[in-house]
Amino acid sequence: MSELLQLSDEVREALDAGLPVVALETTLVAHGFPAPDGVEVGLASEAAVRDAGATPATVGVLDGRIRVGLSADELERFTPDARKLGPRDLAACAVQGAVGATTVGGTLAVARAAGIRFLATGGIGGVHRGAPEDVSADVPALAATPTVVVSSGIKSLLDVPATTELLETLGVPVLGFRVDTLPLFYAAEGGPPVPQRVESPDEAARVARAHWELGGAGLLLASPPPESLDAVELIEEALVEAKRQGVSGQAVTPFVLGRIHERSGGRTRAVNRALIVANARLAGEVAVAYGAL
Question: How many other CB atoms are there within 10 angstroms of residue 146's CB atom?
């Protein structure tokens, strides 16, 4: 393994022993919540993975190395000033010695290099509204990486139907965890119908194993948030305001999240936190079930 990639002792020992490991991103720590909430959510996600019987492997770039497995003190270094890292950004950030927080796509790239097959997040990126040519790096990374990504669907500020169609084109199975329609991040239902539904972590693990045996790569396991909240109007308003202010690219997501958290009186932030932690627990359960097959 490249010296650029540094695994914590805990993660290395778990992987060497064939024990279940779940990768976690750091963008939500640095950019998804105001400090110190991001660190608290990151630690709560790690605790949820452990409660499920798996080992958490939070990913980020520090001190010239791509780190897999971080301490609480190290998590605190992922402030809003951290670079936001997709797959293309990892090498430059490490070589330049900057602090870099990985997106889902960036975390998938590291998971592939480390041999980790499970990842938990809030929601994945996808096709941007009104700009079908603008596609998040999360999607091609998922299509290329044999990993189960547990999320509450696709980020609802994006073009969810177009993203779902793109995932189909790329051969990425979308599994609804006890739901028939794709969760819309904050909302438990309302998205496009899911092609397949699974009822348990064991069933999800068996589908993943069969998919990989057939030469497939990533799978999206869509789990509804523990508390459902209709935030469609808030998101629409925030997107309009982002366009009016000229916010674009990677800055759109944190801008929109900040606006809707403010306008909802913190309700969206609470739902966001709960679904992230719940997804981490479910990813741990699926990883444990896969290890028992």
Answer: 17
Q: Of 46, 84, 155, 285, which one is the catalytic site residue? A: 155
What's the distance, CA 197 to chain centroid? 20
d(CA 67, CA 94): 10
Instruction: Give the tens place of pLDDT for each residue, 68-116.
Output: 999 999 999 999 999 999 999 999 999 999 999 999 999 999 999 999 9
The DSSP bridge pattern shows strands 174-177 and 127-128 to be unpaired
Task: Give the residue from 268, 266, 272, 263 showing the smallest Cα distance to 240.
Answer: 263
Q: Of the listed 25, 46, 84, 285, which one is catalytic? A: 25
Strand, helix or coil at 56? strand
H helix runs in 17-89, sequence order: 27, 37-51, 72-75
Amino acid found at 127: V
CATH classification code of 5-291: 3.40.1790.10
Q: What is the pTM of this model?
A: 0.94
User: In which residue are the tokens 């700009």 written?
Assistant: 131
Angle at 254 between CA 249 and CA 256, to 5 degrees: 90
User: From CA 198, how far away is CA 235, in angstroms rounded?
Assistant: 29
> Is residue 155 annotated as part of the catalytic site, yes or no?
yes
Domain ranges of the chain: 5-291
